[in-house]
């Protein structure tokens, strides 16, 4: 059965979904669009507001579909946009063999229907409510250009809201400093035992003060102290509280900071940068290269959002670009499971735009193109160069939590009962996170190149290049 506008209208859950799909029918939104050789399956990658694109696959007849976005509408606007593009601009679809993630979806499909079970077919009485592509196009055409006076009023409103938020944040920092003095007066030796209760009220006040970044750090502190050993808790508590104090002080004096560090402190407090603003920022650091997807990490935050991290290794090792990058997205936990856009081991050729920072790491994937297999980069051998890089980065960004270490010429060796360490030929060693020991035991004794996350005490191994092939961390 051929794909037509009428079929797309029949699949759409409502008129709003069609209108939203229309806004996505732009070349810049779709770095990847392809069709299977038999033209029965379509897939693409849509760059949304997050760091990583949504992956969309659908049958041409609309009988099945899958999208990695968290929408609760079925099909979502991304699926409708792909079908719409196929009807209006079929020349934009490259004929290609399906990649592995499309093959996996096809194997699981088992003839499932794209229309949600039990959704009745519209009858004549419901014709007026049936979603229509023509109506969506008419709605888009009817949008009037912005009135200059209205635009000026909107800009003034934004400035007023920004000034009010600045004042609220400064009041929240006053609360934080008083609370910090109270904790020091009580002593930090037993702070871990009272951390959950001690941070709860202040965290709520910081949220009210529009300082969500500081509130999140407080929320995470109790959980972090609970997970680590007793002998480390007092030291970690002192470090984390010290970082909060440092961020608060830096925010009060941000006009005296270098521009990249000023951006760091504002994000640490809770200000965000929209995707469009970052991509349009000519001063934002950029790196065009071939990237290896090292690992995917997922964590449920206290604010009921799931944090999805995709870690990339830069195969260009001449020192002119960041050695690694992380793409971060947040999805509601209530929305169910959310898939990662890329699988560990995939190779991506594209440009990463980094958030301005004294230590650029988090970024957005601005463009992507087809990439072949890539060789793992070869940094200077041993632990010393990577640890020196960490020390330099920590000096530039003092509240740094974790930093990726790219290592070569190292091994994993036993370091006591149920413990491993990364060692080099000179005898330097760093401890490995205990929860990983069983998973990385097969790497024991091999000559390794590693990507690790290092917090100054413990290393978490994300990926390894070995004589037997590559190993990637699995959640």
How many H/I helices? 13
Mean pLDDT: 86
Number of domains: 4
Residue share in helix: 25-40%
Largest sheet: 5 strands, mixed
User: What Rg do the Cα atoms give?
Assistant: 25 Å
Q: Termini, distance in Å?
A: 41 Å
Percentage of residues in strands: 15-25%
Report on this model:
- By secondary structure, the chain is an alpha+beta fold.
- The chain has four domains: 137 residues, no CATH class; 110 residues; 87 residues, Beta Barrel (OB fold (Dihydrolipoamide Acetyltransferase, E2P)); 89 residues, OB fold (Dihydrolipoamide Acetyltransferase, E2P) (Beta Barrel).
- 37% of the residues lie in helices and 23% in strands.
- The chain contains 13 helices and 16 strands.
- A five-stranded mixed β-sheet has the order 4-3-2-1-5, with helices on one face. The protein has a five-stranded antiparallel β-sheet with strand order 8-7-6-9-10.
- α2 packs across α5, α6 crosses α9 and α8 runs antiparallel to α9.
- The two termini are 41 Å apart.
- The relative contact order is 0.08.
């Amino acid at each position: 059965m051929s794909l037509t506008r009428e079929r797309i209208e029949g699949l759409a859950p409502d008129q709003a979904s069609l209108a939203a799909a229309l806004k996505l029918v732009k070349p810049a939104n779709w770095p990847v669009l392809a069709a299977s050789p038999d033209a029965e399956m379509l897939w693409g990658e849509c760059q949304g507001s997050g760091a990583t694109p949504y992956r969309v696959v659908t049958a041409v007849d609309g009988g099945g579909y899958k999208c990695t976005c968290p929408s609760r509408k079925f099909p979502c606007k991304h699926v409708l946009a792909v079908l719409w593009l196929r009807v209006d601009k079929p020349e934009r679809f490259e004929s290609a063999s399906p990649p592995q993630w499309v093959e996996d979806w096809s194997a699981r499909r088992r003839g499932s229907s794209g229309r949600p079970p039990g959704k009745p077919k519209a009858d004549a009485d419901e014709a007026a409510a049936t979603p229509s592509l023509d109506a969506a196009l008419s709605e888009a055409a009817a949008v009037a250009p912005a009135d200059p006076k209205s635009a000026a009023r909107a800009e003034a409103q934004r400035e007023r809201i920004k000034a009010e938020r600045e004042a609220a944040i400064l009041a929240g920092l006053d609360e934080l400093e008083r609370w910090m003095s109270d904790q020091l007066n009580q002593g930090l030796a037993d702070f871990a035992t009272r951390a959950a209760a001690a941070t709860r009220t202040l965290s709520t006040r910081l949220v009210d003060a529009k300082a969500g970044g500081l509130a999140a750090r407080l929320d995470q502190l109790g959980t972090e102290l609970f997970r680590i050993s007793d002998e480390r808790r007092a030291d970690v508590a002192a470090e984390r509280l010290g970082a909060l104090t440092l961020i608060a002080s830096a925010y009060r004096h941000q006009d005296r900071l270098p521009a990249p560090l000023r951006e760091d402190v504002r994000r640490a407090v809770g200000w965000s940068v929209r995707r469009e603003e970052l991509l349009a920022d000519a001063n934002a650091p950029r790196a065009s290269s071939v990237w290896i997807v090292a690992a995917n990490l997922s964590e449920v935050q206290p604010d009921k959002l799931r944090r999805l991290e995709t870690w990339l290794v830069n195969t260009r090792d001449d020192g002119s670009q960041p050695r690694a990058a992380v793409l971060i997205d947040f999805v509601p936990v209530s929305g169910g499971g959310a898939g990662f856009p890329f699988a560990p081991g995939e190779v991506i050729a594209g440009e990463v735009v980094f958030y301005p920072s004294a230590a650029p790491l988090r970024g957005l994937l601005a463009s992507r193109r087809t990439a072949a297999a890539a060789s793992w980069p070869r940094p200077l051998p041993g632990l010393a160069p990577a640890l020196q890089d960490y020390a330099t980065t920590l000096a530039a960004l003092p509240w740094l939590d974790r930093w990726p270490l790219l290592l070569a010429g190292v091994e994993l060796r036993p370091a006591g009962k149920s413990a491993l360490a990364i060692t080099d030929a000179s005898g330097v060693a760093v401890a490995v996170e205990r929860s990983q020991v069983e998973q990385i035991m097969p790497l024991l004794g091999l000559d390794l190149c590693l990507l690790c996350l290092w917090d100054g005490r413990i290393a978490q191994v994300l990926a390894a290049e070995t004589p037997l092939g590559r190993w990637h961390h699995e959640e």
